[in-house]
Every structure is written in C-alpha cells, then in structure tokens.
Amino acid sequence: MPVIAESWSPEDHWLIYLFFFAHLVLQIALAFRVIMRRRGVGESLSWILVIFVFPVIGPLSYLMLGELRIGHRRVRRFVELFPPIRAWLEETAKRLPVNWSQLGVECEPLALLSEETLGLPTQPGNHLELCEKWQDVFRRLIEDIDQAQQTCHLVFYIWHLGGATDEVAEALIRARKRGVICRVLLDALGSRTFLRSKMVERMREEGVDVHAALPGGLLRMLFVRFDLRMHRKIVVIDGKIAYTGSLNMVDPRFFKRDSGVGQWIDAMVRVKGPAVESLAVTFLADWYMETRCTLEELRHSGNVEEQPHSGECAVQVLPSGPAYRSEAIEDVLLMAVYSARRELVLTTPYFVPSESLRIALATAARRGVKVILIVPAKVDSVLVRYASQAFKGELLRAGVRIANFDGGLLHTKSVSIDGEISLFGSLNLDPRSMRLNFEISLAVYDKDFAGRLRALQQQYIDRSELMDLESWDRRPGRQRFAENCARLFGPLL
To answer: Which residue among 144, 272, 411, 430 is the active-site one?
Structure first.
C-alpha cells in the first residue's frame, strides 16, 4: 500500500475526489427525481435505498429500470391507433348495452371503474368454457386451429419447444397452407430460445408470421426500458373464438423440469360471443405496436367482426400495462377486494402485494369476509419467495387464510368474489404485473361462471396445506431477517 500511495500524484487524488463528488451529485439528483415522480411511498423509498446504498450499481439500476420508457416509436404508433380504437369503442357501447339490474349489486360500480380506467366496456351475451387441465386446452386449441378459415392470432409470453406446443406449431403450418393468415406475437425475452429455433424458421418458411415483442439490445436500453414484458396470453381464431388465461405455450411435462417446483398448474377460458371482439382488438393493437404493419392492413385482414350472443355471461376485457395509467389495474383489483361482503378467494403464483393491496386484504378479513389466498408452496424465484413470505404473518394475524398448494407451481391467476364476480387472466399479484407487464384479464359478471371458478379454486385448496400462525411465528430468526430484507425490495420486483 505505501508503494501504491507514493505512486499517486496530486492530480490522481483530485480525480478521485471529483468522481465521488459527481457520484454524490448524481445520487442526490436521482433521489430528487424519484421524489418528484410521486409514486407509491414504498416504491420511492426502495429506489432511494438502492441509489444510496449501492455505489455506481444503484444509480445505474435506476437509470435503466426506474422509469417507464416505452420508446418514441411506440408512443407515435399508439397515437396513430387511438382514433380507430375510439370509434370502435363508441360503436360497441351503443350496440351492446348491459342490463345491470339482472346482475349483482356490486357489478356495475366495478364495471364502470374498469371502463373508466382501462377503456373497454362490458359486453353481454358470452359463453365461457373454463378449461381446468392443460391437456384439454391444447386439444381444443388444435381443433379450433384446424377448423380456422381466415385468421389465427396468438400472443404469448413464453413458447417452449416440446410436446403439445410442437403440435400447435404444426396446426398453424397446416392452417397457413389452407390460406389462413397466421400471426404469432411472442415476448422477445420469455420466448428467446424458441425464437432462435429451427421450428420458428420452418414456421416462417411456411408463411406463419412470427414476431418478437419488446426486443432488447444494448442500444435500445438507452431509449426503452428493457424489462417491460409482453405477458399476455391470447388466442383469437377467425375473430369468433378466443382463449385467455394463465397458460403459456408450454407443455408442463417438458417445461422447467429441473426447477424443483413440480409441473406448472394453469387454467384457461374459451370464449365465444361479443367479448371476442375486445380480445381481437387487443391482439391487433399489440401487433400494430410491435410490427411495421399499417392500419389499412389491419382493417383488411384483422377480422374483427360483430359477434352474435352465444350465452349469458357479461364479460369485460381488461388489458393493462405501461401504455395505461400505472395504477389502473390495481385500482380495479382494490375495488373488487373492498366490494367483497362474504367471501374472497385469490390464486396467484407470485404474491408480493403493494401496501394498498395488503391493507385491503387484511381489512376485508377483519370486517368478517372469508378471505382465502392460495399460493404455491414452492416458486421458481428465490427473491420473490422471501419477499412473499414477509407479508404472510401480517395477513394471518388479520384473519386471512393462506393455503400453500403442494401439487406443483400453481400458476392460475384468479379472484372470485361472493360467488358473483370473477377476475381471471394473466395478472400476478406483484408490482411487475401491476405496472410493468402488458397483461390481460377478464372481469366476468356471472354467477354460473363464478361457481365453476370457485369449484376449481376449491380443488386447489383441497391439495394445499393451510398455514398456522403459531408454527409460522416459530420460524428461525435468520429466515425472518432474510424475508424482511427481501421485503424492502418488494416494490421493485
């Protein structure tokens, strides 16, 4: 050390002082920016902690991940897309009025808030088929693709090679050979391996249009936040049949077999009726944002048509993501929780609640609502697991019943409220899903569907172990410390 110190010149010392001074100025400037952004207190404090505790890495993390930058091109495309979307919404609202007097008393206020915050109206006259097993989903999906005559539109976060997913790819190739327009939109990160595979090469050679959404790259990181992800799961066939839910294009027998969490457990709904229009428009909007197609091309080949009534379900499609107000979907979820009077059952694979959601769940339990939270006993993210555990004790003390599912990684995302209202789709109960991911959910105002969903949730409960507060309080101190540390970063997960 003395030799090194003697080799330093006075200029070297000034350079070091200058670096530390510039770094401190940057930290203060970023902290000021965090404060002025007026986000949630927990999220703001977490970012300030990261900025000051981790030299260099903290400020860089905020510059790359701290703000929602969707890119100038996407903003411009969104502005171009808004007029035709607005015209469709105005026409749809006039064409499909809802008779709220026949539905539950809490349905209309939730629907009005959802329409105000996320834009799409409630559409009556739908038939929803709840597909509880992945085998049934793939069987029905392949059958529908094989019967397609005009268009097959698919968007997924993950497409994983092997098993039933290869059969879907083959079905799309067969459809394209019949002249069907086949468009597939996949998240660039979640489907990275598949997008580089020979299967994609073959699909493209046969005319299936496969496109990566939200691509990354070092240069793009300077202008677009790279961890914004396309997390939606939507299939629309001929503009007449649609699927959505939690299942990625993966065969659970082959997907993440070495993760130690077991097979992934998912559910989907097959939709017929007017709500298919909203799912079709959501896909086309995503396709327009992520590709170079023109509005004229979408008008001629999008295949969005008025759908006849096919059942009795009133359904509201709820697309959410960075293009919307950041708290929009959380506001809908919070109102759903506060509207519960008798029972509230939630399933989610990743549970890292915001302060508002944690308080809403605890308050519901304290005012006599039977609140049941069903989560997997094991998840594939260590940090999420510890952060999630940190909240469970508070909820248990409030009276929330927490069921740890032992039959694999429970990936179904659902909420049932008083046997009258259901929320179902791709949305996790964590900050990433609420604010960073492009998600899709359905609000279903129908007692029959709520009953079927509640029966599925009961199947999950029957395969779960209910947590005991006394046993929970006896966990080791080092585990508590790790959980509380992870909780500090919960708002950023």
So the answer is: 411
